[in-house]
Amino acid sequence: MRYVKPLVFAAMLAPLVWLVARAFTGGLGANPIDRITDETGTMALRSIVLTLAVTPFRRVTGWNEVIRLRRMLGLFAFTYASLHFLTYIVLDQFFDWTAISGDLTKRPFIMAGFTAFVVMVPLAVTSTAGWIRRLGGRAWQRLHRLTYVAAIAAVVHYWWLVKADITFPRRYAIAIGALLAFRAWHAIRRRQSPAPL
Ligand code: HEM
Question: What pTM was estimated for this model as a whole?
Answer without folding.
Answer: 0.94
